[in-house]
Amino acid sequence: MIVFEDVGFSYERGVPVLEGLSLSIHAGECVGLIGANGAGKSTLMQLVLGLLPHNGSLRVDGLEVEKKNLAEVRRRVGYVLQDSDNQMFMPTVLEDMVFGPCNYGMPRAEAEARADEVLAELGLEALRNRYNHKISGGEKRMAAIATILAMRPSVILMDEPSATLDPVNRRTVIRAIGRMEQTRLIASHDLDMILDTCSRVLLLSGGHVVADGPAEAILRDRALLEAHRMELPLCLQRL
């Protein structure tokens, strides 16, 4: 579903942020992307969407991520931004949720029905007609996730989806991620959430994937995590 072959990216010439990435994420996988601040997690996701140029080959569902394919790639990939204020730009939650489907030609009534279905799945019916500037940060994060799900992409990228959420909404997000059938790539410092949702983990450090394997094995490896400026998930620290 997502294939990197010797992919690299630099913001400045001669200073690589990501270098020589080669990996595959298969259809339906839920993969956690972890690493210390500045490891390149958000950059990697932006490469998948074609928001940044790259060296090497990067394909999504068989489509090379290049200018001529960007519209189709972006139809297939949903991106939950780290800052929900940059994602929710319409007056109400419903208007945000129907904007994408309607923009791709879906009749308004069908788009609203899909939005209502997603809101019901997440238990967010009360947000349907709320104004975005009058809901809390946690509610806005939940609404942003709902907006992406309403697009029904085949791939979902999430950048810190549990950030700013209270415990109830955090658990709602974890349950929602677990029910998704799409290919999911989740970047987060919340390693407990990664442990709860992902079967596989990629650890980024120094522009490279330094570990790629079962989430349980990598997230229990204290020496590995500490060597790359991370700590065990809180639930494992108490054991």
Features of the shown structure:
239 residues; alpha/beta; six-stranded mixed beta sheet; four-stranded antiparallel beta sheet; 10 helices; 10 strands; 38% helix
Explained architecture:
By secondary structure, the protein is α/β, with parallel strands linked by helices. The protein is 38% helix and 26% strand. It is built from 10 helices and 10 strands. It has helices spanning 41-48, 70-76, 93-103, 108-122, 137-150, 167-179, 191-197, 215-219, 222-227, 234-237, and strands spanning 2-12, 15-25, 30-34, 55-60, 63-64, 77-80, 155-159, 183-187, 200-205, 208-214. The strands form 2 sheets. The chain has a 6-stranded mixed beta sheet, sandwiched between helices. A 4-stranded antiparallel beta sheet has the order 2-1-4-5, with helices on one face. Strand 1 and strand 2 (15-25) form a beta hairpin. The longest helix has 15 residues, at 108-122. The N and C termini lie far apart (36 Å). The relative contact order is 0.17.
Helical fraction: 25-40%
Write down the overall mean pLDDT.
Answer: 92
Which regions have little confidence, pLDDT < 50, spanning 5+ residues?
A: none
Number of helices: 10
Total strand segments: 10
Structural class: alpha/beta
Tell me the β content: 25-35%
Task: Let me know the largest β-sheet.
Answer: 6 strands, mixed
Using the alpha-carbon principal axes, give the shape: globular
Instruction: Give me the strand/helix succession.
Output: EEEHEEHEHHHEHEHEEHHH
What strand order characterises the main sheet? 6-7-8-3-9-10
How far apart lie the N and C ends? 36 Å
Rg (C-alpha, Å)? 18 Å
